[in-house]
Amino acid sequence: MAVWNVSLENVFDSNQMPSNTSQLVKMALTQKTEKSTAVKSLNSTVEQTVVKFEEPSTSRPVAHSQEHRASNRKRTLSQKSDVISLKKALLEVRKFSVRGFQGEECRQQKEQIAITLGAKPSKRPYVNYKELKVVRQLEKAKERERKTIQRMLTSKKRRKILKRRRRL
Predict the structure, then answer these.
(1) Is the separation of the CB atoms in 133 and 145 below 8 Å?
(2) Whole-angstrom Cα distance, residue 64 to residue 46?
(3) pTM of the complete model
(4) Domain extents for the chain?
(5) Separation of CA 63 from chain center
(6) What is the mean pLDDT of each run of 10 residues along the chain (168 residues)?
(7) Helix axes 104-116, 62-98, angle to 10 degrees
């Protein structure tokens, strides 16, 4: 919304001062429309130009860049096909090697192949919590025994050296 600051001196000549307010409003509106048409005619006569800036480092000849892209595509396609063929060959070898297994081993090997191809691994089997606690206690006991045997086998000097290293 345009705001017009119109004073009577700017709008009318001193000769044309109207006596009536309605005449004053009419004259102000005609002056306003004359100004807007003058601005529109000025805008239409001015020519507009568009300037596009290109950095010299990024602009290259079109033919060279297209040839370069085409050669890169050929290289990448050949490299991808080599990689794919190697993957297929490895998969075939693993499938062939699975034939040598029987029973549970065969099932595990097939599962491993499926995992390498992107399948989700199977969930761990359910173990009762009481049984799990017993298994963990046995594992801890074995670990303690291993440590005590290791201590007995090492000399006292060696133990002192190891303690010093642990402190640092």
Answers:
(1) no
(2) 40
(3) 0.32
(4) 8-42, 76-123, 126-168
(5) 32
(6) 50 54 67 59 66 70 62 69 79 86 90 90 92 97 93 77 78
(7) 170
